[in-house]
Specification:
25 helices; kinase; Glu/AcGlu_kinase
């Protein structure tokens, strides 16, 4: 065993005097770390059961495979890739983790160095001999791996030191052989050395001493102990010896596949369980290095059995290399995660496949049968009201005792008999709408004799709906998905777990009448939302229902999956100079006070300047005070008052409570400009008796919903006659405003012929068939001479 610390200053007591300035900074950093809070070490008994638990990993081993460290020509190191890995390791180390690196690369680095020396030597000899003999061949002879390792080891370590020094992080080199683990004394010395380095906030960089290591013996593993044949087995053995929480093995493949990567049937395995070896086919080993994927799996399973969690991931992909290690530690779905704990139910991928399969059958059902399912669900809601409310009471008690939910979310979480009856009525409206949804012909065209083209509405496919503490969302969205023939994945907030469970059971019971129970699935595993958003090959649309922050988080996390959502519900009500006093009081009260937690509640009240200091203005303020609405004054409104309410921190605030901003404008045009600047394109209202002013407001404002003399609370799928909504979209494409069945449909083109029609666009002297978008009975096919 060989050990070196930074610039060979191995005595801890002499670090201050003998180490360079960088190392002195490391000592100060170590002392500072002792005095500051860092991630607490966990009791090392077993591996983590779920990816999300990897955030708790304190001691981490990062194994860098030969394919990760070396360049594609196998001569020299991939410096850019290595630098990004060093940055991630240093960042985790400086945030209180204990990082260790098991690295390859000495042979490649030495090969580069020796080739350079040999070519330089040959060039000098040839120059000295020029004029006497013919030029000799400049090819480089085959280089012995041990010699390359001996020549490259020091250079590799110097490179690591230089890179880590940029982050004020100390490193130490440790070279080991298989004998160091088989000899009890040497193994104990190695353990003590590494333990001390970690205690001093130093990153150990470990490698096999390839200059002296003997060739690995086939099947030389001892009983219960893995033999050190390559850096995979070294990393596994080291992780178990040091009781590491996590081993990250970086290679040149994404992870484990059920078939060799690149083949048509190859599928990345997200989670690998002991005993699943039969489900994968091992290919050849990587282009460099001693181990292949079979060796990695064997080493990973051995480490897992020893209590260390393992992730095998790609360290060469330029799209993820810069954050692959930190993403894994954060629990993101990268590579293959090894777990000893099999979930009780199917994985989210399996749930998605089951939902898609049942969804295709659902889409092919007659509209009447889809309506039957929805009506049955409506009946079940009223029949099981007591059971639903009992579950909801449990959720409310847990939420109230925790004190973590704001009052607005508690209101959304709460169900009542009236709410359930309203849900049931809405579902029956959806059942009626289902009669004319999927399979409807939008356009029919005759493009040639006996050749007819149709544009038909069809389901989008698999829809993922993510919602927070709103259990009433579950039956609404389920009914809309059933009506449109879509498969549905649901991810509900844990605050409503009991209520969601009962509502899902009722939904699946209704689906069972036609054998389609699996068409609606609740993702009940501890799957992170960000992981779900990466399933771009399995999910066709994501609809987040919840806070502005949730919507934005989903939009950022979604990789290649469209997101149908809204921004904040910053809704405005503008009181024009020609407004009716009676209408103003009623509309403003309903818009703000009827349900302040809703996204269509008024958040900003714009008042025409001429209304200030009038009885109508006093009535508005008195009504808001009576309803206990807290007023935040906008800048202009505050300037008119001697003693103003608290000034609004922002004119773009969604309060979701009995609070609102009041601001003054000079005209309808200024109100429109204010809304365009500070609004969220959700719902905006004008109150006026001037029809011309109202029409200008309705035309100029480009919000999803624009109302004249009506409450902003009308922006709702139920009030629009849609029965329910999956959300209110403020997007500019596809669906906008309250999204009902139509928003869950797309189209496909169907061409029906007699089997003898040929699309011939190359016939001499003619031009292709010309046609217009007319009804079929008015259609005429024209053929004209191109001359």
């Amino acid at each position: 065993m060989y050990f070196s610390l930074c610039n060979k200053g191995s005595e801890v007591t002499m670090l201050r005097s003998k180490l360079p300035l960088v190392s002195q900074r490391c000592m100060f950093q170590f002392l500072n770390r002792v005095l500051t809070e860092a991630p607490q070490s966990r009791v090392h008994a077993s591996s983590f059961a779920h990816r999300c638990a990897l955030r708790q990993a304190k001691r981490i081993v990062v194994k860098l495979g030969s394919a990760v460290v070396t360049r594609g020509d196998e001569c020299g190191l991939a410096l850019g890739r290595l630098a990004s890995i060093v940055e991630q390791v240093a960042m985790l180390q400086n945030h209180g983790r204990e990082m260790m690196i098991v690295t390859s690369g000495a042979v490649a680095f030495g090969k580069q160095r020796l080739r350079h020396e040999i070519l330089l030597s040959q060039s000098v000899r040839q120059a000295l001999q020029s004029g006497h003999n013919q030029p000799k061949d400049m090819s480089v002879p085959a280089l012995e791996a041990r010699a390359c390792a001996a020549a490259g080891q020091s250079g590799l370590m110097a490179l690591y030191e230089a890179m880590f020094s940029q982050y004020s992080t100390c490193t130490a080199q440790v070279l080991v052989t298989n004998l160091d683990f088989h000899d009890d004394e040497k193994r104990q010395n190695l353990h003590s050395t590494l333990q001390e380095l970690l205690r001093m906030n130093i990153v150990p960089i470990i490698n096999t001493n390839d200059a002296v290591v003997p060739p690995p013996e086939h099947n030389s593993d001892l009983h219960g102990v893995i033999s050190i044949k390559d850096n995979d087995s070294l990393a596994a053995r080291l992780a178990v010896e040091m009781k590491a929480d996590l081993l990250i093995a970086l290679s040149d493949v994404e992870g484990l596949y059920n078939n060799p990567p690149g083949t048509d049937d190859a599928k990345l395995i997200d989670i690998f369980y002991p005993g699943d070896q039969h489900s994968i086919t091992f290919g050849t080993k990587s282009r460099v290095g001693l181990g292949g994927m079979e060796a990695k799996v064997k080493a990973a399973l051995w480490a897992l059995q020893g209590g260390t969690s393992v992730v095998i991931a790609n360290g060469t992909n330029p799209k993820v290399t810069g954050h692959v290690i930190t993403d894994i530690v954060e629990g993101k779905k990268l590579g293959t995660f090894f777990s000893e704990t099999k979930p009780a139910g199917p994985s989210v991928e399996e749930q998605t496949e089951m939902a898609r399969s049942s969804g295709r059958i659902l889409a092919s059902l007659q509209a009447e049968k889809r309506s039957e399912i929805i009506c049955r669900l409506a009946d079940l809601l009223t029949e099981k009201t007591e059971e639903i409310l009992a579950a909801n009471k449990l959720d409310l008690e847990v939420a109230s005792s925790s004190g973590r939910l704001p009052s607005a979310m508690l209101k959304r979480l709460s169900l009542s008999v009236a709410k359930i009856n309203s849900l049931s009525i809405g579902l029956r409206q959806i059942a009626t709408s289902a009669q004319n949804s999927a399979g409807r012909v939008l356009r029919r065209t005759r493009v040639a004799h006996n050749l007819e083209l149709e544009q038909i509405t069809v389901p989008i496919g698999v829809v993922l709906v993510i919602f927070e503490a709103r259990p009433d969302c579950l039956p609404q969205v389920s009914a809309l998905a059933i009506a449109s023939g879509n498969a549905l994945l649901l991810k509900g907030g844990k605050e409503a777990a009991n209520t969601n469970h009962v509502l899902l059971q009722l939904t699946q019971e209704a689906l069972s009448m036609h054998g389609l129970r699996e068409a609606v699935q609740m993702v009940s595993t501890r799957e992170e939302v960000e992981g779900l958003c990466r399933l771009d090959k399995m999910i066709d649309l994501i609809i987040p229902r919840g806070s502005f922050q949730l919507v934005q988080d989903i939009k950022r996390a979604a990789k290649g999956i469209p997101v149908l959502g809204h921004s904040e519900g910053v809704c405005h009500v503008y009181v024009d100079a020609d407004a009716s006093a009676d209408k103003v009081i009623g509309i403003v009260r309903d818009s703000k006070c009827e349900y302040p937690a809703a996204c269509n509640a008024m958040e900003t009240l714009l008042i025409h300047r001429d209304i200030l200091r009038t009885p109508l203005f006093d009535q508005i303020i008195d009504m808001l005070r009576t309803e206990r609405v807290r007023i935040h004054a906008g800048p202009r409104f505050a300037s008119y008052l001697t003693f103003s309410p608290s000034e609004a921190k922002s004119l773009r605030t969604e309060y979701n409570d009995l609070e609102c901003c009041v601001e003054v404008v000079d005209s309808m045009q200024e109100a429109v400009e204010h809304i365009h600047k500070y609004g969220s394109s959700h719902t905006d209202v004008i109150i006026t008796e001037n029809a011309k002013t109202a029409e200008q407001f309705l035309q100029q404002l480009d919000s999803a919903c624009v109302f004249w003399n009506a409450s902003s609370r009308f922006a709702d799928g139920y009030r629009f006659g849609l029965g329910a909504e999956v959300g209110i979209s403020t997007a500019r494409i596809h669906a906008r405003g309250p999204v009902g069945i139509e928003g869950l449909l797309t189209t496909k083109w169907v061409l029906r012929g007699d089997g003898h029609t040929v699309a011939d666009f190359s016939e001499q002297g003619t031009q292709t068939y010309l046609h217009e978008s007319l009804p079929l009975e008015q259609k005429e096919i024209l053929q004209r001479d191109s001359s």
